[in-house]
Fold:
Amino acid sequence: MTTAEAAPPPAPEPVDENIWLEEIYGEEQLAWVREQNARTEELLEDAEYTSLEDSILEVLDSTDRIAMVGKRGDWYYNFWKDRANPKGLWRRTSWDSYRSGSPEWDLLLDVDALAAAEGEEWVFHGANFLRPATGGTHRRALLSLSPDGGDANRYREFDVESRSFVDPAAGGFDLPTAKGNVSWLDADTLLVSSTAEGLPSTTSSYARTGVKLRRGGSLTAAERLFEIPEDHMMALVAHDSTPGFERTFAVDWISFFEKTTSVLRDGQWVQLDVPADVNLSSHRGWLLFRPQQDWTVGGTSYPAGSLLAADFEAFLAGGRELSVLFTPDEHTSLQSWSWTRDFLLLNLLRDVSSEIRVLDPQQPGTDAAWAATVLDACPPLHDVNAYAVDDEDTADDSDDDGTDGAAPVAEGEAPGAGNDFWLVATGFTTPSTLTRGTLKRGDRGGVDSTHEVIRSSPSFFNEGAYEVQQHFAVSRDGTRVPYFQVASRDLALDGQNPTQLSGYGGFEISRTPAYSGAIGRAWLERRTGESAGNGGEAPHTRGGVYVVANIRGGGEYGPSWHRAALQDKRHRAYEDFAAVAADLISRGVTSRARLGCVGGSNGGLLVGNMLTTYPELFGAVSCGVPLLDMRRYSKLSAGYSWIAEYGDPDVPEQWDFIKTFSPYHLLRDGVDYPETFIWTATSDDRVGPVQARKMAARMQAMGIPNVWFHEALEGGHAGASDNRQAAALQSRSQHFLWRSLAGGGA
Structure:
């Protein structure tokens, strides 16, 4: 590279008087945190707060809530937390027992007992089973355990029959705590992507390599299979052990939205020839594609957000015959999909209400390549998701249970469960239900389904007193932005209702209707008394209004909705959210003094921008585990991995637009800012706590009144690792907003 071609110097960093707070575990820094925590707890943790926390904890610890299960072999596995078991129990039961409504659980691991025995605050993050040999049982699993609730995990081999870890001295796998991923290659070999034991990491803090770890070996001596450049986001290696379709994959995750996938053939990696922004997945003989931007193949253009299929081997050999399974329109987007043994389930959103289609690869369709049947299971303004029970259950679909094949689930272990599916339905005022169904080809074409409700969540508030409405605000550029409003059926449109506006708007993540007993109790049913008017009428009370905004940057309308707010277009997400706030005020639902907003992570960045750019719209802001310093975010924790979303602040022309949505740099003297509560967690190794610390410190130093900060010392990016911590986290945010908006004041 010549001098003339040399890259320009990085954009200069603004003066940062709080950079000392970036040392996460420094003694002086933690002393500052404890002082802030004490100040905030003194303000918030009054008798009303204590009652609120107990009420929310009762919801989280309820023994009547649905114990969701995952099927492996003949067993149904569940992880459960409650008051007596705050760290949780990993357990299993039979189908007969689970279906009975009063399961007899076979306890596999008590995480509280493990933590006490080992002196480590373990947080259970899941189990990855080894596929057994033909005729065998699922016996060995790798358990993922985090020491503090963060993203770094320790993987330990566990024997579910002996209910114990396999001793490393006897060859049991035990991988040191690190960020990464693990996949079984066979009974004695793992495919590992990790930063442990000196293996290299990317700038984003994730694994750069994939290695083959043999039983009894070490990661440092393991054979390296795959490696990516340091400035790429993450390497991943994994094995698909589906009988007859065994394949080993490597993924070079270039950025958050770009990756290349390769399959191992004859000892060589063969890269699948698709653009990096086309999402891939495989199932048996099929390869599925979901482009994030319009994709032209063989002269045919396929729109972003469509779903396409090809024969796996034919595509690898150079064939480009693609079948169109779904095409989005201005109202409908594809959110996810799941394969049963013979059918493909598509989970869609139509104006943010669910629709589920079942596709049959064996029958030609009319509007798509495969015949599609709409599953009649989705009421309006609800979120309903379907996914397979166990697509690998290849038991014969027989009728020897005496039901002539009519029952969705037979007594005992269901034969032919490969075409069974779970259906989880929820709404803002509808407690969740779990349904199990079976799919089969209809006698007259299409796909028939039978269903049986297995579990229903309990009610935690008087849902019948509230109404869910969907409204559309008009953003600055004329885009119609949907939002959900949950309020009392006798809502008075007088501008005086305490209103909590929630949003996210990033990473193509959709905000959909969901039941929350905590929101019901902490916000909707909470009452404030005030005079009905100036004429001496009898006083009356009113509850809170809860609002969820479906702003651009999210995935509610597919990739185009997301890309509309990427990088230099980020302001559109904030304009959308502000438009919803203004619409609530103009409709008389609330007023500036009664309107608060709440968001976490990228949602914390969202409400940070409401604080600094639209302070005239809000009376209070609750900002959780947030990004706020967008000049240094890419140097903190996993921030480098989000450059594809926000831009690179080290590039001068990109910093020019990033600084317009960097709340830490947008604070100004003389502005009437909303009351502000900023909360985070010391052990958050994804966003990290330092941006929240610095924002609070700067606001307090500027003399901005009513700025509060709290930092949980554990809990990771979720801010909580058990139900008690989760209840405290939710209660602090809810109590702060209510005090600020309902007249108490912080």
Notes: Residues 336 and 347 are 5 Å apart (CA to CA). Residues 27-58+491-528+541-741 form a domain with the Rossmann fold fold (CATH 3.40.50.1820).
